[in-house]
Amino acid sequence: xxxxxxxxxxxxxxxxxxxxxxxxxxxxxxxxxxxxxxxxxxxxxxxxxxxxxxxxxxxxxxxxxxxxxxxxxxxxxxxxxxxxxxxxxxxxxxxxxxxxxxxxxxxxxxxxxxxxxxxxxxxxxxxxxxxxxxxxxxxxxxxxxxxxxxxxxxxxxxxxxxxxxxxxxxxxxxxxxxxxxxxxxxxxxxxxxxxxxxxxxxxxxxxxxxxxxxxxxxxxxxxxxxxxxxxxxxxxxxxxxxxxxxxxxxxxxxxxxxxxxxxxxxxxxxxxxxxxxxxxxxxxxxxxxxxxxxxxxxxxxxxxxxxxxxxxxxxxxxxxxxxxxxxxxxxxxxxxxxxxxxxxxxxxxxxxxxxxxxxxxxxxxxxxxxxxxxxxxxxxxxxxxxxxxxxxxxxxxxxxxxxxxxxxxxxxxxxxxxxxxxxxx
Length: 425
Ligand code: LLP
What we know:
This protein is an alpha/beta fold and 425 residues long. Helices cover 28% and strands 25% of the residues. It has 2 domains: 10-39 and 289-416, Lyase, Ornithine Decarboxylase, Chain A, domain 1 (Beta Barrel), CATH 2.40.37.10; 108-283, Alanine racemase (TIM Barrel), CATH 3.20.20. It contains 12 helices and 21 strands. The strands form 3 sheets. Strands 4, 14, 15, 16, 17, 18, 19, 20 and 21 form a 9-stranded mixed beta sheet that branches. An 8-stranded parallel beta barrel has the order 5-6-7-8-9-11-12-13, surrounded by 4 helices. Strands 1-2-3 form a 3-stranded antiparallel beta sheet. Helix 8 (214-232) packs parallel to helix 9 (258-271). It is globular and about 70 Å long. The termini are far apart. Bound molecules: ligand LLP.
């Protein structure tokens, strides 16, 4: 295992651990901890890996913003030409607030509400990725009421095993997502006949943190079989959306490079004669995951006969992936050098739950007051943060070369209960 797995802009220098040219320990001292820090360069580099092989194709990268929906991050991707994959009206408002283009936005999700559909139609999203026949009927009714036509793609559940964590595997027939492959033709026929709908595409998303190309090719083949069958029936499919899900290196995983994945998909698409269609991708984690770190300060070092606990000021409310999925995320010291002896530590937060851990049995030379970095924390980290234990959410900083700008101020304690009301009398 390399000391700094997967993080392209992270390096150990004389000033300690740096993201781009910014020393992280100093940044933590200035802005406080817990602190999320992202590299602009790493995000754009990850995006370029998708864009390069697609340069001469009609394509759209719809950043799956659930991975990290902070406005400045969205703004960066919007400026770089991205569209967005959204799953709620809240995410749609974030796209608009960040200057993103609704016409480049696809609306996914198994449970869209009528008000959300209305708002998406009002601003003109590119497409609704519809997940059930019931949703088709509701959307048809909502669009008709508004005198609009809703562009739709059906999310196909191809029954392909993405071989990832069960909570983030979405393309198996037992998962709640999408329309069963065997049922799709019938659903498309219904869509084509309903008023207020216009069939424009087909999509799938088979899971997250996928580390092999095979499942993508299998899912693509199933989509293309359907496209061919649909066109025989006179239902035209303008775009193919192959979803997101590409994994990143947290420790020793070796996912394919985005460029290789895209190249292999294009090869298959061309071989089957579908090269002229617009191609959509919905990457989340692979664009931002390894661009970010979570900085945290050591509060208490508690040594014991059986276990040593390193209690830090970040907790499961700041970063839930270890507690929720048993996820491994690397933890490294930020300082230039520590005089403390190396020991095995369980790195845990101050939240009152035994499940509140960030890393287990990690060999670290740490002492109280040190700053640690949790790596690969750009995706599904801040966007999943909560206020459990009435803990304000962390601040966020974006670095670009030697510049660092605050993109989210630390939440205030007052803001936590600003919308609560005491009982009258
Ligand atoms: N498209 C759809 C329809 C999705 O549901 C997702 C993720 C994506 C795209 C983006 O997938 P990505 O490229 O980021 O793998 N919280 C979990 C991951 C949940 C993923 C949910 N859907 C985690 O921390 O591992």
